[in-house]
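Per reviewer request, we include the raw input and output of the structure prediction for the construct analysed in the revised manuscript.
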Amino acid sequence: MSDTTDSRTRWLALYVLCLASLMIVLDVTIVGVALPSIREDLGFSETSLAWVVNGYLLTYGGFLLLGGRLGDLFGHRRLFIAGISTFTLASLACGLATTQWFLIAARSVQGVGGAVASAVSLSLMMGLFTEPADRAKAMGIFGFVASGGGSIGVLLGGILTDALSWHWIFLVNFPIGVLVVLLTLRLIPGAGPVAAERRLDVAGAITVTAALMLAVYAIVNGNHNGWTSAQTLGVLGAAVAVFGAFLAIESHVRAPLVPLRLFRLRNLSTASGVGVLWSGAMFAWFFMVALYLQLVLGYSPLQIGLAFLPGNLIMGALSIGLSAKLVLRYGIRKPLATGLLLASAGLLLLVRAPVDGSFVADVLPSMILLGLGAGMAFNPVLLAAMGDVEPAEAGLASGVVNTSFMMGGAVGLAVLASAAASRTSTLVDAGHSEVAALTGGYHVAFLLGAVFAAAAAVIGATLIRESAPAQEVVGEPAVESC
């Protein structure tokens, strides 16, 4: 096979991985637009409807670390195919659901499949590209899909729900998932396990998965049950206790699920911390801006999706082109900090968005800054996280990064929604109109999101280590040989 053919195959394989990642990311936000239709059709109550979203988040967050480690033990491609197949079949079940319990159960299985596939996809991508410039460009494309997929989901959810029915937000995954599996078998080279120790730490797997699921459960229900309620505090306490048991197990077993020395890798730990804060800021963009457009400015689902389009286009242009060049020229820290500060500025601009705001004057400038910031920042975050990880632990490291983003999004959204609701309630009690009170609540959420992004910029700029010239940092040893 010629070098040209090899190169073409690698890039086609990357697009397959990105398509799979897009399906999984979309399923977090695409459902939000369709929730009113799902509630009306299947007769959900306000409380039970939340489980259409929470069932997915619970298993997705819980199985990321386990999925990544299983990939190291049994082969990344094998686990990727298993995860996508599970996700695809569960999507078909969701689309055919006619009862509440069946839809929630299928969504939970979807989360398992999505977690397994997500946890190893970054490892597969790192293995496909070994040249510094190619790896930086590939990481930029992958980062754009990961960061932009959420807002794309708002647009696609509105189109499918308005034009067809809510069933199609799930059914559309089936042919795409089948295509991804077939193309993976054709384009992505198979490889054996990369971990020297094939033994699975069962006790560690059970405790870390249970701890993550308990934590996600407490977070996603915190606003409804009350953050100081006995139920919320009890579940959080149980999550901390189980996680403590997990740490004790990992420090004593011969072949731990998560070697604790992994967290001594400075760039991985720092990038994970940045990911938590950055994900919280991104949720301020995806969810709170969508609520402002819908409930304050009166936009339809389709109009909301179109409003996000400028930011997504800018993000894509930067991620696919300029971001890689910036990393190769300036290293990781400068583009990361600059991108996060631009995103922080975009969220700060939204703090002044009025009740009678217009898109061009009050929303578009923020969308442009957020698109610029996200397009610049995601590539460096991912490169920092994976740069100094050994091939045998690449899947686990990928799971750690995905877990940090997922937990950051869940915690961030809970904090933002709670702060916005509290401010709105205060303004209503003070005699403000409902629309003015909602706007005031969203302003607080935007301000907190700006603080998250700025804090992430400071942490990334001061703690991420540029241990080698940029060309070498991006060109660390590959996970798997092509």
